[in-house]
Design a protein that fits this description.
- The structure is a single chain.
- The chain folds into three domains: about 1-205, Alpha-Beta Complex (Protein-Tyrosine Phosphatase, Chain A); about 205-405, no CATH class; about 415-500, no CATH class.
- It is about 50% helix and about 10% strand.
- It contains 18 helices and eleven strands.
- It has helices at about 45-55, 105-125, 150-155, 180-190, 205-225, 240, 260-270, 275-285, 300-310, 315-355, 355-365, 385-390, 395-400, 415-425, 430-445, 455-470, 475-485, 490-500; strands at about 10, 30, 40, 65-70, 75-80, 85-90, 130, 140, 145-150, 165, 195-200.
- The strands form three sheets. The chain has a five-stranded mixed β-sheet with strand order 2-3-11-4-10, with helices on one face. The chain has a four-stranded antiparallel β-sheet with strand order 1-6-5-9. A two-stranded antiparallel sheet has the order 7-8.
- α5 packs parallel to α10 and α7 packs across α8 (about 275-285).
- The longest helix has about 35 residues, at about 315-355.
- It is globular and about 85 Å long.
Length: about 500
């Protein structure tokens, strides 16, 4: 975060932060993952914290029972009059801070410094604190109460003694570090299947959703290791959730939406139990997505990748560079979630195999002889980082393969040959036919896209780039020079105008 004296006090909440219906006041985008006691939300107010915990506990779960809360944010937080305010670098207002490899201890230290800085600013400003919103609009708040996030959590523990709050600071753009996966696993080991897990980031979208997938995969490990043989035998047990191996991706979806990227297909082919691991991860990702995939309303990871890839085709070069980075980062996340699913599946098998012979009799079901191991007795044989060390090829594979996508649609060779022939024979004389054939080709190439502006822009950009590709050399050099100078853009009509206008004598 750098020098806290330079930090800006940014309001965490803003207009239109709520994306889901039926909100909990003060707790943006709160939702439960269907089939799991795993919950997701944005940074709550002090009131929102309590309302969320009341919702999670309901009327039956004891308030002194374990409640695990993971905070995936990197920025330090304070509470002013019960409202969350974070420290942001001045150049990161209205966007994610992306502070790099920040640890829990670093965030805690920065939180203390940020609280002190806010106290100091309040004192020299007549008890008021200057803040900005996501749109960089400045205002002042009369400070009646000022607390750090840690102090707020300690206050909540008076009513919810079982609350355990863990900071796992994660960059929004990247997958959690291998050690971040281990922090979550180590925190959850020894808890029961019914232990509530709540996860937040600022808004309750990207980082929190990815962490929810991790938490659900751990719950699946508990179910698989603890209750083998109980599926469809115990009233009330969610058999649908348990049957992850029977999950089949809807094959009518586009390959992008199915997550069938080359780097992932190669992983699945090479990884032990790869197909089952991807199925497991995909089912949990779907449950953390929109209602059409069985979730509660937030767009899931594969959809984000696919839609970003479709948008890529219609963007200008600068926007394409940004989207390309975003797509590769999300593929990196997806890859790691599949690998983690494989790690958890392996851990479930190992957990069942290590039960001592004399103990096995005590936990075996009389009818089947299969084991029912108490979740609190479950352990994992090694850390996720150790698992990745043993399978280091996976790291190399994702680092080199996440960009292995067909970023631009290739024009069919026959269509390109036809256009090049027309241009070489008589560019200006054949221009009408050239434009007709370019658009006819575009119509066929983008036929899979739904009608609308998205498709029109994709076809138009394709037409512009294809025309540039077949321009006579002299024309092409002239256009490239003008584009480089900023005198024109890669626009179909600008290119046509430059190549066809009659220069004054």
């Amino acid at each position: 975060m750098g020098d806290m004296e330079q930090a800006v006090c940014m309001l965490d909440h803003f207009d239109k932060i709520q994306k889901l219906p039926d909100p909990i006041p003060g707790c943006p985008n709160f939702r439960r993952v269907p089939g799991f006691k795993v919950y997701c939300c944005g940074q709550p107010t002090l009131e929102g914290f309590e309302k969320a915990l009341e919702k999670v506990c309901g009327t039956t779960y004891p308030k002194d029972g374990p409640i695990i809360w993971f905070n995936m944010r990197q920025e330090p937080d304070v509470y002013v009059n019960g409202q969350p305010i974070c420290a942001r670098p001045p150049n990161k207002i209205g966007e994610y801070a992306e502070l790099g490899a920040i640890t829990r201890d670093i965030v805690k230290e920065q939180e203390t410094k940020f609280l002190g800085e806010c106290e100091g600013r309040k004192s020299v400003n007549g008890g008021k604190l200057k803040v900005v919103d996501i749109n960089k609009k400045q205002s002042e708040i009369e400070v009646k109460e000022l607390k750090s996030l840690s102090q707020a959590i300690e206050g909540l523990k008076e009513k919810f003694p079982g609350l355990v709050h863990w900071r796992v600071p994660v960059c929004n753009s990247a997958a959690p570090l291998e050690t971040d996966f281990d922090i979550m696993v180590n925190t959850l080991v020894g808890t029961s299947i019914n232990t509530p897990v709540i996860i937040n980031d600022q808004v309750g979208l990207s980082r929190a959703t990815s962490a929810c997938v991790v938490a659900c995969l751990f719950k699946e490990f508990q179910i698989s290791a603890s209750y083998e043989g109980l599926i469809e035998t115990v009233p009330g047990l969610n058999a649908t959730v348990l049957k992850t191996d029977k999950y089949v991706m809807d094959q009518t979806k586009d390959a992008l939406f199915r997550g069938e990227f080359e780097v992932v297909k190669e992983l699945v082919a090479k990884m032990k139990d790869g197909v089952a691991a991807k199925n497991n991860a995909d089912k949990i990702i779907d449950l953390n997505g929109t209602k059409k995939t069985g979730g509660t309303g937030i767009k899931q990871l594969r959809e984000n990748i696919a839609e970003s890839k479709l948008s890529y085709e219609i963007m200008d070069d600068a926007a394409q560079a940004f989207l390309k980075s975003k797509i590769m980062d999300n593929i990196h996340k997806y890859f790691y979630l599949i690998v983690f699913a494989g790690y958890m599946r392996e851990a479930a098998v190992a957990a069942r195999e290590v039960i001592e012979a004399e103990k096995k009799a005590a936990v075996a079901l009389p009818a089947s002889g299969k084991c029912s191991i108490p979740a609190k007795d479950l352990t994992v044989p090694r850390t996720f980082k150790a698992f990745m060390d043993e399978n280091s090829w996976m790291r190399e594979h994702i680092d080199t393969g996440k960009g292995n996508l067909q970023w631009e649609r290739d024009i069919p060779p026959a269509a390109l040959s036809n256009l090049e022939g027309l241009a070489a024979k008589d560019f200006k004389g054949n221009l009408g036919q050239i434009i007709h054939d370019i658009y006819q080709t575009a119509h066929l190439m983008f036929n899979d896209m739904p009608q609308g502006d998205h498709k029109k822009r994709a076809k138009y950009r394709f037409a512009s780039k294809t025309l540039m590709r077949i321009l006579p050399e002299a024309n092409r050099k002239e256009v490239e020079g003008l584009i480089e100078k900023g005198s024109m853009t890669l626009d179909l009509y600008e290119i046509l105008g430059t190549c066809t206008w009659i220069k004054p004598q």
